[in-house]
Specification:
Structural class: mainly alpha
Helix content: over 70%
Largest sheet: none
Number of strands: 0
Distance between the termini: 16 Å
Oligomer: single chain
Order of helices and strands: HHHHHHHHHHHHHHHHHHHHH
């Protein structure tokens, strides 16, 4: 069942009522049933594969041995690779299980943490099953850890009116982002990216900018709904977004965007790779070629490359995702490798990091770099991505004809102008809201009732209902 389904609010109301009405000793069992029902309602065919992942991981990691870890990795990664990348000809007709990328990472994270002694294995398979299948997070994350989630899911919770208000308000924010902002931007973005050769540089730039906002509103909107619903139940999910478009550097951006995925790669891939003998030998070889480079920076080069290559492949079996991963691999390696040089340059220039104009420049520069990466991420082929890059950097124009063409994807005549004005107002409203959040301005909390009423009205009047699922369900 999708969060945007007309039946989802009724499902949530019944689930919350059932959770708080049963005796507290039955709460986690009730939540497990609710989660499995929720997952089955999406498509009953998905459920057996989820159960295979849960049962095998629980069984093989009871003793936390290397053999158990190997079996867990083979089974779970095998299922993920088979369904996501269709590597076996003639057996590609099965539907990709909903959320398989996210719950696979949770099972693998649990297995690695047990093996490394970070946590003790959970003996009760049903408690472990709830951790993996917990319905607010199973389809798109956040990618929870047993250390953070296990106890919360099992301990008793009591109804709290304040939690209901806070959670309900955050759910409203999520639906506003998804149904109004992402929903409205979707039509323009899909129209342009489906046929980029038909449009000029200004239209393509607008589509890339709109996609950046659409993806953020869509994905963070889902997280707001999931976190709000979970807060009502008394269970705190990890934050997955911290206003990433206010980042001043690319490394900072990736500390704010899809936080739990990046933490997973850091803990289970980057850090282990850093400690390998092969990486030491590789960095020692780089040191001979680049004798002035810092050893610490060289040690990160191979792990960064592997992590970002893997991140690109995780998103899908397409050259565009590989290109996106390599794009960030180069940027992150360059950022790390040049950190010392840039520090000396800033010192010579007497660079004031608190200067307002410098902050704005760094923020816009980072957003520009992110938007260039989105061309790879959203384009339907490498050829389309190359075409978009070429037109943007060789055909930029603000002529009346270019401006008129940029309005075409909005519709015809007055409809196009009205749509453009509405979207401008919506994006500006989101920017102001996020800016106040970034500054921790108390006006947001003081006017929460007004904002809630405004979001309800805007969602009712401008929301796009029943048009699409959340974008990251595709991953």
């Amino acid at each position: 069942m999708s969060f945007t389904s007309i039946w989802f609010p009724f499902f949530c109301a019944l689930s919350i009522a059932a959770y708080f009405l049963v005796p507290v000793r039955y709460q986690w069992k009730t939540l497990l049933i609710i989660s499995l029902v929720f997952y089955s309602l999406a498509n009953p065919v998905y459920l057996p594969f989820l159960l295979i992942s849960i049962i095998t991981t629980h069984y093989f990691m009871l003793k936390g041995t290397g053999k158990g870890l190997a079996a867990t990795l083979i089974i779970n990664l095998g299922l993920l690779v088979y369904f996501r990348y269709n590597l076996i000809p003639g057996f590609n007709s099965l539907i990709v299980p909903l959320g398989i990328s996210f719950y696979t990472f949770m099972t693998l994270g649990y297995a690695l943490d047990v093996y490394n002694g970070v946590i003790k294995p959970e003996r009760n398979i049903f408690k472990y099953a709830l951790f993996i299948s917990y319905f607010p997070q199973i389809t798109q994350g956040p990618i929870g850890t047993w250390e953070a989630m296990g106890r919360q899911l099992i301990e008793p919770h009591y109804f709290d009116a304040e939690r209901l208000k806070r959670g309900g308000y955050r759910i409203l924010i999520g639906y506003f982002k998804k149904l109004v902002i992402a929903g409205r931007l979707m039509f323009y973005v899909d129209t342009v990216f489906s046929s980029p050769g038909s449009y000029g540089a200004l239209t393509l730039c607008t589509a890339v900018f709109f996609y950046a906002i659409e993806l953020y509103a869509d994905f963070s909107g889902y997280m707001d709904i999931a976190a709000g619903l979970s807060e009502i139940l008394g269970i705190r999910l990890s934050e997955n977004f911290l206003r990433p478009y206010f980042s001043r550097t690319i490394p900072e951006y990736w500390r704010r965007w899809h936080i739990t995925l990046n933490e997973w790669f850091r803990d289970h891939l980057f850090v282990p790779l850093m400690a390998t003998e092969f990486n030491r030998s590789f960095s020692d070889g780089l040191k001979k070629v680049l004798p002035k480079a810092k050893t610490a920076a060289l040690r990160t080069m191979l792990p960064l490359f592997v992590v970002w290559l893997t991140t690109g492949i995780w998103h899908g079996a397409a050259w565009t995702y590989l290109g996106w991963g390599l794009y960030y691999a180069v940027i992150m390696m360059a950022s790390t490798g040049s950190a010392g040089i840039m520090k000396r340059v800033r010192k010579k220039l007497k660079w004031n990091a608190k200067n307002r104009f410098i902050i704005i420049f760094q923020t816009l520069r980072t957003f520009f770099i992110v938007c260039l990466g989105y061309i790879f991420f959203r384009a339907e082929s490498i050829q389309d991505a190359a075409l978009i890059f070429k037109r943007i950097f060789t055909g930029a124009s603000l002529s009346p004809g270019a401006v008129k063409q940029s309005l075409i994807p909005f519709g015809n005549g007055h409809q196009a102008i009205a749509s453009a004005l509405i979207l401008t107002a919506l994006i500006l409203g989101l920017f102001i809201y996020e800016l106040l959040e970034e500054r921790q301005d108390d006006r947001l909390s003081r006017h929460r009732l007004f904002l809630a009423a405004a979001m309800i009205a805007a969602t009712g009047l401008l929301g796009i209902f029943g048009q699409s699922n959340f974008l990251y369900q595709a991953f």
